[in-house]
Amino acid sequence: MTAAGTTSPSLRRALPPVYAAAAVRLAFPLLVLPVVAARLGAEEFGRLGLLLVWAGVLALVVEGGFLAATTRLAVTADAAGRWVLARQVFSARCVLSVLALLGACGLVPWLLPAAPALQQAAGIALLAALACTLGWPATWYLQASGQLHRWARVELAVYGLWLAAALALVHGVLAYVLLQIAATGTLAGLGWWRVRRDLAVFPAAGRLWSAQAVAPGLRMGCTMLPVAVAGAAYSFALPAVASARMSRPELGLYYLADRVVRALLAAADPLYQLVYPRIVARMPQGLRAAATYAARWTLFGAAAGLALLLAGALAWPLLARWLAGPGHGIDGSALHAVFAVLAWLLPLLLAWKFVGYWMLGSGRFDHAYRLCVMAGGAFGLVAALAFAGGGAVALAGVALAAEGVVIVTALAGVAATLRVRGG
Q1: How far apart, in whole angstroms, are the C-alpha atoms of residue 140 and residue 63?
Q2: In angstroms, rounded to a whole number, what is the distance separating the alpha carbons of residues 418 and 423?
Q3: pTM of the prediction?
Q4: CA-to-CA separations, 225 to 102, 232, 299, 337, 416, in angstroms, rounded
Q5: pLDDT tens digits, 99-133
Q6: Which are the contacts of 50, defined by CB distance < 8 A and separation ≥ 6?
Q7: What is the helix (H) or strand (E) element at residue 245, kind and residue range?
């Protein structure tokens, strides 16, 4: 039972809808994006990828770090406390959305330098709208109030309609972007409607917007925003920064391969949600007991990642005809070369994330965790600028190396913390 009176569901009831929603999300990089890439060709798909990665970067600004910073506060808060948090998040995001709009105003003239003024204005509106809809979801509240299993059914409906519409209607960049804005905007709107509905029973509930709530909201989010930005650098900021030196076809190849690999990694998220509290539950027995439990899952993750890597290698001849068939404008051999590098993220990260959750669950390695994420992000951005001229394969190598920097820095931080504080 949470502080606000909602009961956490059993895993048997919660996991099926959550995994069903994750499966539909997985269909986009595995099914929709390859089909869209085949229809648009390498050049146009590269333009779409460029727009999506920059929208993802601006969405981080709009999200504001609240998923990490606010969720842990909302878990133990009562209805009054959650209402205060909701006003702070809502009000701060209104201000951050203006910053995203200003960012779009600066980016679009650089991304479309030769475009007419009207086309640039449309590009600014699309980029800002996509960034805001991506950054506004109320996931912090849904997770804290134990509603993710019910919310997954909403995601299933919206993502299912989006998937069908994309396969049937998308034959250009504009159509894809408008459909994504409609889908993500619907999810964001419905999520905040649920926040308002649940907390309206609080006697002092009023408007969500409050000028006085902006400053405390920004302060709260900023505690985790740098970590969120750095953590997303490998997925969004790398291709965004590298786009200054990469051709659109090369960017499209990297974006397609990266989305597929990241989606496979994200499919394990419900498992992490199951294992993480069990790691935390073993902490009273000592760091070693929790580490032993996490290590078993680490070995399992590494084995699962290697199995996926091997399955992909064996299935490539068949997949190549679908992903990069003749006449689709996608270079099959170049796409395979990018996959051959990025696919090593599967065993690396499926193993590493359990170690990362052990660090977070202990409460002793917060500084080491923040440092490793920031170090990986900084390395990735600098290396992307330096090596992006080498194309999609070089950028894939940068992404892999950045994760290596994260892991090495984290382990060094753990060792240093244990030396200072004792094991």
Answers
A1: 10
A2: 5
A3: 0.70
A4: 19, 11, 31, 34, 25
A5: 999 999 998 888 778 788 888 899 999 999 999 99
A6: 111, 239, 240, 243, 248, 251
A7: none
